[in-house]
Every structure is written in C-alpha cells, then in structure tokens.
C-alpha cells in the first residue's frame, strides 16, 4: 500500500507542478502585450534630421515647434552641418563632405565635389590613423535676413585631433562660419569659412 500511495502522491505532485507552470505561462502572456507602441518623452537635445527638402526639428519639447522658426532652424542646421563636416578620418574617404552634398547650394556642392575628386586622386598613407572629431559647443547667428533668404552662423567647435593612437591626441577650439541661402524654401550652406585654431 505504501508504494501505491507514493505513486499517487508523486503523480499528484507532478500534475500540480504542470498546472502551476501552465497558469504562470498564461498569466505572463496576458500581462506582456506582444506588439505595442509606446511614446517615450526624451529631453530636448536639439537634434535635426536632415533631408533634401527641409529640416525637421526634434519635437521632444511639448508645445513648441522649432521648425516653424526659421532662425532656430538655421541654428540647428548649422550645428549639425558643422559637426559632420568638421569631423574626418584618414579612413573615411571624405564621407564627412559627400554625406552633406544635399545640404549645400549647387555652387558649393560643385566646389566640394571637385575638392574630393582631387584629394581622391592623390595617394595617401592610410596605414597610420589620423582623425578629427568635432563637437559644436556655441552657435551664434551673426546675420539673419529672412526676406532675402540669407544667414550667417558661426559655430565654435571643440575638436580632438588624433594621430596614430588615442593617447596621441590634441584638443583645441576652432570656429567655422557657414553662409546660408534659402533655395526653394530650404536653407542650404553656400559658404564655409574656417578661423585659425584657438
């Protein structure tokens, strides 16, 4: 009788464990929706998503639309353009310039295309890494005329220049001034002027 009692008790325990596992799995399935969309409010970091027609400002700040303010739009475009244009690498094949062709006026684009073509014809030693990382720190609108569709923005960059290894780097500030023109409703960079290192 005792062996029979152990089998019944063991079978009952096994059945109880199976039921608990099934209930646990069912509850987990009902409390975790499979495919839901959620909105996360992030702090405004003043980013701009650039495309060929317009700039769309970061809409993380409730109640404000910075894209409707042309002066703010130009500032944000300048911040992003300068940060990309001024960051380069000996292994980057001038992507810092070619990725920004869409944000340039036709004249500046032609000048930059000629520069890139000339540089790519020259043989350069890429065995030793050389790169510059640029972070926009201060953006100053020097001139803004919405009616004429022109603007000038100075961006102060903090630049870290590295040659060889990361321990061989130099940090400095440098200003880049961007001249903007509004072409068919979109702000485009038409002039780039570098100031000496600070």
Protein model, in words:
The protein has 198 residues and is an alpha+beta fold. It has two domains: 1-29; 71-194, Roll (Nuclear Transport Factor 2, Chain: A). It contains four helices and seven strands; from the N terminus they run αββαβααββββ. The strands form two sheets. Strands 3-4-5-6-7 form a five-stranded antiparallel beta sheet, with helices on one face. The radius of gyration is 29 Å and the shape is elongated. It starts with a helix and ends with a strand. Residues 32-66 have low confidence and may be disordered.
The low-confidence parts are: 32-66
- The overall strand count is 7
CATH topology of the largest domain: Nuclear Transport Factor 2, Chain: A
Strand content: 25-35%
Adjacency order of strands in the biggest sheet: 3-4-5-6-7
Output the number of helix runs.
4
Helix content: 25-40%
**Shape, please?**
elongated
Class of the largest domain, according to the CATH hierarchy? Answer: Alpha Beta
Task: Calculate Rg over CA atoms.
Answer: 29 Å
The tally of domains stands at 2
CATH architecture of the largest domain: Roll
How far the N terminus sits from the C terminus, by CA atoms, comes to 94 Å
Structural class: alpha+beta
CATH superfamily of the largest domain: VirB8 protein
Mean pLDDT: 80
Write down the secondary-structure element order: HEEHEHHEEEE
User: What can be said about the biggest beta sheet?
Assistant: 5 strands, antiparallel
């Amino acid at each position: 009788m005792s062996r029979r009692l152990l089998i019944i008790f063991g079978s009952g325990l096994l059945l109880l464990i199976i039921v608990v596992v099934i209930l646990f799995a069912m509850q987990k399935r009902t409390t975790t929706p499979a495919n839901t969309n959620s909105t996360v409010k992030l702090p405004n970091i003043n980013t701009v998503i650039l495309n060929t027609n317009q700039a769309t400002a970061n809409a993380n700040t409730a109640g404000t639309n910075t894209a409707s303010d042309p002066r703010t739009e130009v500032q944000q475009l300048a911040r992003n353009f300068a940060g990309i244009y001024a960051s380069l690498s000996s292994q980057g094949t001038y992507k810092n310039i070619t990725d920004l062709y869409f944000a340039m006026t036709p004249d500046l684009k032609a000048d930059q295309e000629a520069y890139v073509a000339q540089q790519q014809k020259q043989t350069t030693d890429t065995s030793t890494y050389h790169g510059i990382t640029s972070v926009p720190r201060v953006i100053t609108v020097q001139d803004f005329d919405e009616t004429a569709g022109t603007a000038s923005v100075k961006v102060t960059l903090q630049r870290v220049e590295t040659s060889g290894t990361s321990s061989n780097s130099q940090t400095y500030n440098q200003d880049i001034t961007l001249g903007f023109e509004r072409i068919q409703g979109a702000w485009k960079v038409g002039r780039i002027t570098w100031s000496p290192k600070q």
